[in-house]
Amino acid sequence: MTPAADGVRPTVVLVHGAWADASSWNGVTESLLAAGYDVRAIANPVEDLTTDAEYVADFLHTLTGPVVLVGHSYGGSVITNAAAGSRKVKALVYVDAAAPDVGETNGSLSGTASVLNRKPESELFDKLPYPGAPHGAADLYLRKRIFIQNFANDLPRSVATRLWASQRVASTEAFDTPSQHAAWKTIPSWYFISSGDQIITPASEMAMAKRAHSRVTLFRGGSHLTLISHPDAVTQVIRSAIDSVH
């Protein structure tokens, strides 16, 4: 990997996942800003993997200097595509995330033990149509019980309930669109895996991390929202990726 120019710190770009928004990175953002890093936690449309990745790639074009690109959950699929062919992105960081290969969908990578594969759709989601949706596509909200017990299971119930109430909708197209690229094949990567993740299973994440030859950190406990409950642990992994750029 080409090192950054002397004295130039990379910009850290944080991409959130489904049923969340950029505020899910608040704790990580505060830590990185306090350490003097340039950080941008940007919006992820969660509409279609191809166009979501293009949206992030277009944002990367506005930056100067090296970039450490970080994705949580579905955001991992987005950065896997957005970084393809980029000379700016020097490191990828996956936080309880999916890292698809070409042709794989985000929805296929949750793992057989994921709650998303163990319960019927009617128990998982509130499903509704949206204007201009492709044929068969719909918007999904996580049901309250699933969000609190399986998505944010290590957070206080009051916090989990607030996050459920303010969750951002996700289109089925985001989960069903095949990945067009696999940037982890050419860009060094780091993987943060929570043993308490019930949405993307640790076994699935470990398999993706191994094939990407990622540097793996296994966090004991946590949930799919460890970036909120334990931001310092996540920040430490991101800083390891940052240090590799110097």
Question: How would the blueprint of this fold be written?
Answer:
Layout: E1 11-15, H1 26-34, E2 39-42, H2 49-60, E3 67-72, H3 74-82, E4 89-95, H4 115-118, H5 121-124, E5 125-128, E6 139-142, H6 144-151, H7 157-165, E7 170-171, H8 172-176, E8 189-194, H9 202-211, E9 215-219, H10 226-229, H11 231-245
Parallel strand pairs: 1-2, 1-3, 3-4, 4-8, 8-9
Antiparallel strand pairs: 5-6, 6-7
Helix pairs in contact: 1-11, 2-3
Low-confidence stretches: 1-5
- Main sheet attributes: strand count, strand direction, barrel closure: 6 strands, parallel
Name the quaternary structure.
single chain
Average pLDDT rating:
95
Distance between the termini: 10 Å
Shape: globular
Strand order of the largest sheet: 2-1-3-4-8-9
Query: Per DSSP, what share of the residues sits in E-state strands of 2 or more residues?
Result: 15-25%
By DSSP, the count of extended strands is 9
- Percent helix among the residues? 25-40%
Order of helices and strands: EHEHEHEHHEEHHEHEHEHH
Describe this protein's structure.
By secondary structure, this protein is an alpha/beta fold. Helix content is 36%, strand content 17%. The strands form two sheets. A six-stranded parallel beta sheet has the order 2-1-3-4-8-9, sandwiched between helices. Helix 1 crosses helix 11 and helix 2 crosses helix 3. The protein is globular, with a radius of gyration of 17 Å. The N terminus is likely disordered.
